[in-house]
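Field: sequence (string)
Field: structure_tokens (string)

Example rows 1 and 2, in order.
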Amino acid sequence: MSKAGSRRHHRHLAAFLGMMVMGVGQVSAQIDYRNLDDERPVFTEDAYPIERHVFELLVPYRYEREADGGRVHSTVLELGYGIFDNAQFGVHVPFAVVDDPARTDFGLAGVQPFLLYNFNTESRSLPALALRADLSIPVGPLGGSGTRGTVRAIATRSWGLTRLHLNALRSFGSEEELSVAEPARRWTYSAAVDRTMLRQSMLLVAEIVTSRAVADAPVEVNAGVGVRWQWTPTIVLDAGVTRRLREHGPDIGLTFGLSHAFAVRGLMPSGLR
């Protein structure tokens, strides 16, 4: 083979390999719509973290209307990172506006770092199982007045395009005033079912959640439905609605959000760049 032919061969090979690498990245990102994050768009999350060495930025908006006429607008910025296989570290930074008949307050509503670890990938005999630990730190005017630690157990089971998720959450620490946005409730139990639709680019999910905020608070029962749609290979849009089924709890809640998965080449191992 001549030198010119060899160079053309190398260029074609490099282009082919580049397309393969891009294809692998896109296929990997294109299943992000199936990753249920907490409150995106429903409370229940699945047992899978984001991929190793990948960042995920979530930008949501949530509106809640209380039975007494009070309203809460919030955005809980979240940045997560796949620190190693089956493990994800992240932090929530909530901002909120509380508008009730008496006054309007706004500002930072705490800081919430978390760690999620999946210790069992789904198999024929066992569901996917994960544990998540959160720390709610009372920072800002709407961040509450006490620090709380939370442990959440998560299970996910699949049957083709349908999945079942179970979450059980327990918080420890202060029983004082909680954060306005995504408070660390004393206990919460939830179950959700999702279904992949439209050529595997959309996910529909429905859930039921029961919870108690602090020791002497009434038990709340809420139902929610939501959708996640893969807009681009790295961007997912979500929307959801929740409704209380008992006397206590938000009268109605609406959420809209966007998540973006990306990698920072300088933070990836040299073999993966």
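Row 2 begins here:
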Amino acid sequence: MPVKIRLQRHGKKGKPFYWIVAADSRAKRDGKFLEKLGTYNPTVVPAEIILDIDRAVKWLFNGAQPTNTARAILKYKGALLKKHLLVGVKKGAFSEEEAEKKFQAWLVEKEAKIQAHQDEVDAERAKEKADRLEKEKAVNQARLEAQKAANAEIIAEAEKNEAAAAGNEPVDAVEEALKSEQTIEEAAGTATTEDKTEE
């Protein structure tokens, strides 16, 4: 039975999440599998990979062939290196302890690279956030200035209207006085007419 180490897709549409599995090559991509070896989440930066290295190495020794993507993941996590070191142990090139030391040294170096990449990504995100905040502050400041200018125009218009209204007050007062005089004259004329009628 030809066995392949490959990815099995899970997750939502547009948000893929993969299982790393050992499966019969004749089985469907998302069908039955022999063993789940880990998970791969490409939607985060850096990509999150969880892999059982010892089980993956065992399947590789048993003749399982990884697909191209699975091979890249196995190489990234060190499964191919561990298999290579164990082949050297079987051939007698070095002891198992030396192989384990070499593998652990590689893991430490790899973790340092991953951490450096993570720090770089975090710094870039922080910079983008700061730039976005500065742009928002500039937009808010411009909006505030525009609002102040609009308020100043409204206040100037109101003061202009008040000044115009204050200039019209004497005219209104004269008109009121004239009207009141006419009313007094009319009232006097009415009283005179009433007196004549009584007589």
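free_text_note (row 2): The radius of gyration is 45 Å.
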